[in-house]
Amino acid sequence: MARVYVSAVMDVPIEQAWGVLRDFNALPVYHRFFAKSDIEGGKPSDQIGCVRSFYNHEGGHIREELLTLSDREHTCCYRILSVTSLAVQDYVAEMRLKPITEGNKTFGEWWAEYDVADKDAASVHQVVSDTFRFAFEGAEEVAKQRWKK
Predict the structure, then answer these.
(1) CATH number of the structural domain spanning residue 30
(2) Termini Cα distance of the chain
(3) What does the pLDDT look like over 108-127, one tens digit per residue?
(4) Global pTM value
């Protein structure tokens, strides 16, 4: 089992960071890798069990199921149901935010565990790591735009 972990400090309050990241259907809003996303069956994007179907700019398709979402804990967990662009199996990821009281910032951590063939391990690790890092960067930027400091 492989594991990727990324953390970041976002220069926005936790309510603003969470306001962007909690929307399970908003990846294209804050992430440069992704072009289009829809929640299957018209379900709300914060409903446990909803499935997001999204595409990267090269046409790669991913379907993920929301497993948990907690506004109290500022966490969400999801799993990949199908993916065309990564050679992974049994992929489960979790994202968590915590307030940094000094300076009213947010600490974010995002990790995933999955199975991957040895020959694909390094490239998959890089893609997943970049995905999480760019998500934090994009969410911070969107939050700053939405709630002008």
Answers:
(1) 3.30.530.20
(2) 42
(3) 999 999 999 999 999 999 99
(4) 0.93
